[in-house]
Amino acid sequence: MTVVPNDHRFLQPINLFEYEKLAKDHLSQMTLDYYSSGAWDEITLRDNCAAFERLKLRPRVLVNVSDRNLTTSILGQPLQLPLLIAPMAFQCLAHPDGEIATALAAASAGVGMVLSTMATKSIEEVASACDKFPDSLRWFQLYIHKDRGLTRALVEKAYKAGYKALCLTVDAPVLGQRERDRRNEFALPSDLHLANLATISGLDISHEKGESGLFTYFAQQLNPAVTWDDLQWLQSLSPLPLVIKGILRGDDAVRAVEYGAKAIVVSNHGGRQLDGAIASLDALAEIVAAVDGKVELLLDGGIRRGTDILKALALGAKAVLIGRPILWGLAVAGQIGVSHVISLLQDELNQGMALSGCARLQDIDPTLLAPPRL
Questions:
Q1: What Å distances lie between residue 286 and 117, 281, 299, CA to CA?
Q2: Are 294 and 316 in contact (CB under 8 A)?
């Protein structure tokens, strides 16, 4: 695949880091900072990647790996590799096709996608675009808003449009302070809006200059009073299984299981909420032990190589979610760029498995990992 950047030279990125470098030529500084920034000093943002560098592999040798199988399933739905695209807001800032391009790339590659409440393409638009992939894994991410009618309307729309699960983000009772956004006075351009809110009738949302009123309304809707007891109400709104995203502690994971979660995403919100929080990968082992196989575990934060996926699976995750690199691919080449990012990760995981003596995902276990240095 070739990608044509702004200067019309033909380049072929060979890894996700090169996509990030190229994306800077396609994004405004405000958009680049919004996508790439973390909270406060960005310690957790950096540590998400550093955690994978700290963890070392112990490959097996003389294993028949001539025929490798990367397929798996999440909540009973098949995936061609253990990968989902994380929920990310405002994707039309990267490319006019935004979330539709991302969803089509995910569906055609046989990986999952989680659509953000703060998407710039609506629940229905994304679902309609993927009509030719009726079995694709597509979840909807949401929060329990102060406006319970808004939450109910979003759930009903997602269920009607064929989304397969609700992915509730629980690590944002308030928005984390991202200083790059504050310095830039981040706001959506006038031609973009929060599509999933704008299409719900009866909401009193002010439309300020730059459409920032929608973003302000959403920020004000985050509800710091939500507790575990509210999960029962959320689950009463539809038969969709509940996935809890944003857990970093074993006791919280156990409680999520007790309150009906069918899967958990071990996540620190990409380092965008509480700076100084533990890296997602460093939290995984405790949570694996705590839930003891009662739910499926996924992990996001810091995935940049196929070997990162391998390490997460060896620690006990069944799949991973990837965020920012998808945006870099989207910015550089739209759907083609997203597809290529997925393909690069697939190829790297495939090769990493072969070099580690793993022919199937089921062969990936904790014995592949070196014990931490004391």
A1: 30, 10, 13
A2: no
Give the active site residue among 26, 95, 269, 340.
269
pLDDT score, position 204: 53
Spatial distance between the Cα atoms of 331 and 338, rounded to a whole number of angstroms: 9
269 catalytic per annotation:
yes
CA-CA distance, 85 to 300, in Å (whole number)? 9
User: For residue range 170-222, what is the model confidence (pLDDT) as tens digits?
Assistant: 999 998 999 998 899 888 888 888 899 877 755 555 544 444 455 677 778 89
- What element of type H or E holds 247? strand 242-247
Cα separation, 335 vs 102, in Å, equals: 6
Whether the model pTM is above 0.90? yes
Please, are residues 176 and 170 in contact by the beta-carbon 8 Å criterion? no
Paired sense of beta strands 112-115 and 138-142, if any:
parallel
Positions of E strands within 143-212: 166-169
Contacts of 324 (CB under 8 A, 6+ apart): 20, 35, 36, 88, 270
Q: What is the pLDDT of residues 62-84, one digit of tens each?
A: 999 999 999 999 999 999 999 99
Distant-in-sequence, close-in-space partners of 156: CB < 8 Å, separation ≥ 6: 237, 238
Rounded distance, CA 7 to CA 228, Å? 52
Residue pLDDT, tens place only, 261-305: 999 999 999 999 999 999 999 999 999 999 999 999 999 999 999
CA distance 361 to 145: 38
